[in-house]
Amino acid sequence: MISEKMYELGTKKSTIRTIFEYGRKRALEVGEENIYDYSLGNPNVPAPDFIKQAIIDILNEMDPCDVHGYTVAPGNPKVREILAKDINNRFGTHFTGKNLFITSGAAGAITIAFKALSEPNDEFITFAPYFPEYKCFVESVGATLKVVPAKIDDFQIQFDEFEKMITPNTKAIIINSPNNPSGVVYSEATIKQLAQILTDKSNEYGHPIFLISDEPYREIVYDGAFVPYIPNYYANSIVCYSYSKSFSLPGERIGYIVVPDEVADFDKVYGAVAGAARVLTHVNASSLFQLVVARCAGKPSNIAPYEENRNLLYNGLIEAGFKCVKPEGAFYLFPQSLEPDDYAFCKKAQEYDLLLVPGTDFGCPGHFRASYCIKRETIEKSLPIFKKLAQEYKNK
Amino acid sequence: MISEKMYELGTKKSTIRTIFEYGRKRALEVGEENIYDYSLGNPNVPAPDFIKQAIIDILNEMDPCDVHGYTVAPGNPKVREILAKDINNRFGTHFTGKNLFITSGAAGAITIAFKALSEPNDEFITFAPYFPEYKCFVESVGATLKVVPAKIDDFQIQFDEFEKMITPNTKAIIINSPNNPSGVVYSEATIKQLAQILTDKSNEYGHPIFLISDEPYREIVYDGAFVPYIPNYYANSIVCYSYSKSFSLPGERIGYIVVPDEVADFDKVYGAVAGAARVLTHVNASSLFQLVVARCAGKPSNIAPYEENRNLLYNGLIEAGFKCVKPEGAFYLFPQSLEPDDYAFCKKAQEYDLLLVPGTDFGCPGHFRASYCIKRETIEKSLPIFKKLAQEYKNK
């Protein structure tokens, strides 16, 4: 009577959602202040004042028909020019508006890229730990997602495993750096090696393998970490960006796809992006927020609160005896669980009202994700609890 | 290398777009004021002041994290409650927030409904003249669109032709009233007869046939015309709504789907809607505009300028000798072309700088669409030109 597949996708709760909802119920029993909810990746830094000011200025200065009217499908041409220049200023690229397609956030951008590229029997490859919605998005366009196991000592890439997975059916690789859930940034050496392998394999198979860079966390980096801009390292790159994190606008669904001129057969790829956006009905992202991000292009992200949280939680966990790769970006820690079964570990942590997400959900068992985009006081209060939890494991 | 199908969809220009772009070029040659562009259905009435005020109030009163944060996938629960109450007030229904799923405009709503419902070999049926994107949306979910020929005397429904087209594979019927391109509103008698046939056929085949009502023009009606609210006439209805026209917010992509409790297997249908929204990455429509439409729920649409334009253009065309069903809604006229070949007619009109869209593009040859959501002065200036064009045909 209906699509059973869609029903399943719409009703099967994710582990994250289940944990979060448990936390809401539990908070009613024991009080909000006694729940340490590290489950959701929802920015807790408010959108900067310049966003509010930009909205008000636009409403006061412009004709409402221009503010709220349809834009052309790829987005307001002036906005695309401004965003292209901003990218060029920062990364030394040479894009113009015609390289950009404005989308409803990064999720919209990624599904459009998948749909634009995929032909029957296509395979996409990503690297554990990875954002679990990739699998659902890739499968929804009729392709297959293959996952390279995690390199758990530093969460860079296991290149030998990766090379074994590439086949003539490999359409594209998806990377996400700074990474959700590990917080790790791929080093320049990693990107160079990745680009070399893809160049060699593309030559071997006689068709391009695309590199899709999903980078909503690009600006959320600490200690001056360098995040290589992918099109500067590999020609057949597609960048998927969102302002959800950098400007704390996750609910406004505003981002873009970059298709560089260097991509093999640019017109075909950009045309296919436009077609995919059309059938996914993602043409014309919010016209007001297109104008807002153009006015605010180049303005800084407020990362200080996240960096403080990272330091506090990372140092606290290390002190409590956890092992964790120190992340340079995003707002997640991805430590090893204190027993190999990460589900059992997270269940145990839940007894202490510490709400953590099992690494298995990100394709990386034996770990857990802690989202630290929460109140500093919650982290402070949780540190002795993490110690107690660790103590219980030591006493076993 | 890429999806050829997506490339085709993204690069093949629609007739409307081709005509519009011709108009832009032609305006550079002869001056904007000498082009009578009736091609686009873009609201020219600005968003009402209460929209601007609502945005500013929300920004001043609320925490930015609440304004711009993620909402749950079906949309802000409080917003859904308010919108449900507004619908109940107007149409005597009894919806709550759980019957609504907020979407990125009506296009998003329609594709979600199609994707949620369709199984392999499904057929959808609509009535000419119809919005041409339906075909593209239906085919993109792997189903087939069948089109019942137009009833050209009044643009209601040819029920005998319709009944012949229904098969056990018919999943849903799509109606659009007030209609794009005819402007006609389906009468209560039409809706009752449609509901009766669907009830009978559902019983005959032993499964429900859904009725999807695409109604972005619901509030754009004249002469006090009555637009029946479909769930009051047929249980298995799904309503797709958008604020694009009623509040002149086409660029903000804000609308909703209604799944009434009366729908067979409500939980399954609503669940499938959620799944389809997920893979089409339409979860969480703009969080700011969710709040805005909730604050403005029940406020009136400014239809006076459209009604004036309708009267001016309709009377002018009748006086010039055109035949046209007088429309009661939307902002389109759909008169007969002055020769059977509507493409040839629109080409001839173009020589007079009258930019009209051939009816064939809406599944209804021998007609043309004139979108009158344009400046009143343009219509005034164009009337003598329409007369000249009609005179040329008379002199033939």
Automatic annotation (TrEMBL), chains A, B:
GO terms for molecular function: pyridoxal phosphate binding; transaminase activity. Residues 37-381 form the Aminotransferase class I/classII large domain. It comes from the Bacteria. It holds the Pfam family Aminotran_1_2. Keywords: Aminotransferase, Transferase. PROSITE patterns: AA_TRANSFER_CLASS_1. Its EC number is 2.6.1.-. It is an enzyme of class 2 (transferase). Its cofactor is pyridoxal 5'-phosphate. Belongs to the class-I pyridoxal-phosphate-dependent aminotransferase family. This is Aminotransferase. The gene is aspC.
